[in-house]
Amino acid sequence: MEMPNPYTGNYKVLIVVPLVLVVASLLLIGLPGSPYAIKRGVDFKGGTLVTMQTAAGVDEQKLKAALEDAGFAVSSVKSLQNPSGYEVEVEIERDEKLTLAEELKSSFFSEIEHVSRLEAEVAASNGSAEAVSAYLEARKSTDAYANGLFGIAGRAQNATEYSETNALKEAVGNSYRAILDEYSEKLTALLSSEVGYESAQFNEVSASLSAKFIEKAVNVIIISTVLVSIVVFLIFRSVVPSLAVLIGAACDVIMGLGAMGLFGIPLTLASFAALLMLIGFSLDTDVLLTMRVIKRREGEPRQRAYEAMKTGMTMSVALMLSFVCLFILASLTHINTYYEISAVALAGLVGDLIATWMLNAVIVLWYLEKGGKAGEEQKPFLSSIFSG
């Protein structure tokens, strides 16, 4: 049985559904204090993710309480059954002491090379008063960073005891490693006594690395948006169809983010990758629709939109089935990466069906019925490549 053409009659009412979902998604994740605000995973906020394989499950609340009593800030504890027993996953927020230690170490090593050069100039100038003064002035800040690290490490040292910068660098490095080792040993010992795991994997993400992830993610979004905007405009050479394509992709991502907030899926490298995939697929379906409706001449625009919808929905359903299989696999194996990718992709693909065929299609049809150019009159850039 063939689906009816939704673009007969007053098709403009279709736009209400995607607009309501977009607004609801923005309110869901954007209201201050919303319980559905998207949480950042360890990848984007720093911290420690411990994955343990055990023969039996654990009491999640009891384990969380034990860790918090020991001074660890626990984000979540999960105990999931898998074919080989149980997988216990503990996510711990970045420790404030570790964060401060990392900041002090980074600040120290960002300045110590300059101090080393001044130290060499002192030797080269046979200890001239000017060179010594510049060297001692530069040592003040590096000595302060070093003393801060010594204090966190519990070492009775003073940076002024080290006359050579190479020795000071070694002492600072040893102190930082000692802080990390103490934290790791404390966590390992507690988990060993509380869980009794068979094997464990510790994934430590520093604050600077998580900041780098965020920076790279933002850069990817900005660069891809600019490039996509340029290419789409070159293809259609008209503002409204180009905006329709970009708006459809943006709405798809917003609805995907809303689903992440609703179902408690954190923003990790896996879920971020799924969002990028959604952008690519959304552009495919949006360009398919816009090219079919605007560039072709045969039939009425509404009929061309309907034919494009049948093709696009076939593509979407095929892709959704593949992610359903991945979601089932994630449910059976409890592999979080598979779950995050498949869940975000499925939610986004449903959003793409709504955004493309109930929002983008309405905008494009409205554009043509208001006098926009269609068929060969449009003369899009690279028309020979995108013709069909």
Keywords:
alpha+beta, disordered C terminus, Multidrug efflux transporter AcrB transmembrane fold, 12 helices, four-stranded antiparallel beta sheet, 9% strand, 388 residues
Brief summary of the model shown:
With 388 residues, the chain is α+β, with helices and mostly antiparallel strands.
Topology of helices and strands:
Blueprint: H1 16-30, H2 42-45, E1 47-54, H3 60-69, E2 74-82, E3 85-93, H4 96-124, H5 129-153, H6 165-194, E4 199-205, H7 207-236, H8 239-263, H9 269-295, H10 301-333, H11 336-369, H12 383-386
Antiparallel strand pairs: 1-3, 1-4, 2-3
Could you characterize the architecture of this molecule?
- The protein has helices at residues 16-30, 42-45, 60-69, 96-124, 129-153, 165-194, 207-236, 239-263, 269-295, 301-333, 336-369, 383-386, and strands spanning 47-54, 74-82, 85-93, 199-205.
- With 388 residues, it is of the alpha+beta class.
- It folds into two domains: 11-40 and 206-386, Multidrug efflux transporter AcrB transmembrane fold; 47-205, no CATH class.
- Strands 2-3-1-4 form a four-stranded antiparallel sheet.
- Strand 2 and strand 3 form a beta hairpin.
- Helix 7 packs parallel to helix 9.
- The protein is flat.
